[in-house]
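Might I ask for a little of your time on a matter of protein folding? What I wish to show you is a protein chain and, alongside it, a tokenised description of its three-dimensional fold. I should value your view on which stretches of the chain appear to form regular backbone elements. You will find the record immediately after this paragraph:
***
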Amino acid sequence: MPENDINLYPGSDRVAERRRFILNPKSAFRKMRGLSDDDLVLLLGHRAPGSKYESVHPSLDELNFPEDPIKYLVEPTAGARAGDKFRYLQMTDSVYFSPLTPWFRARLYHSRYRGIDTLMYAGRELLEARERDLEKCAKEQLETELFDPARTSVRGITVHGHSLRLDENGMMFDARQRCMYDEKSGEVIYTKDQQVKLMDRPVSVGKPMDEGELKDRAIVYRPDTVSYRGAEIWDVMDNLFDHIIIGSFDPDLNVEDFKEKMRREDEKGR
């Protein structure tokens, strides 16, 4: 493991390596499909393609701020400098080998993107940012290996379906039917934006990955990828519980002695 990557994620198994690669802000994700700027704007549904960005304040260059050293230390994002409104993107990830999971998206967003806010739910992740910054973040995700058209979905509302069975084409259930699998082209086609509004034209997000490739890129420990019990993260989490949870109740506690005592008591109980 490279020395500068050691704190990104522990372990040397392929799931740990995949997690470490995704969390590294210097990683260049493999581009797997192309999405035009107009197609992206249609999917997000916040403005019409070609229209101007709406703003909540004048550009920073036009504002007369009091002298503040922070503005010389922190470079504003393009959206913040222009005064863009805050917009959102919400992604749903299937439990069946989606390239990302909601909780891991939060870590990715915070390690890779500036000027964002994110909120995690059981099956989806909300990303908020200034509009032109959000479009940049969304484009990187939708065009690269971070997105699979069948196991990942753009859903602003009615997001349920991440834990339901896949259909005959490997597609995740969507009660609002925003997208469909086109058997002729083998691509996934969106006809509605994330707010379930019919778009002026369909938008293709490319072909789904096959099952083998999805498993190779999986970031979840499970029996058919890498066993969690044999992963280094298990030891790391065990160590955290020992020294934070147990130690917090008794800072002078000898953890090893305590574990040995608990082991003996457990044997007596049997």
Summary: The beta strands are 86-93, 117-120, 124-130, 152-154, 179-182, 187-192, 198-204. Residues 232-269 form one domain. Residues 232-249 form the longest helix (18 residues). The CA atoms of residues 261 and 267 lie 10 Å apart.
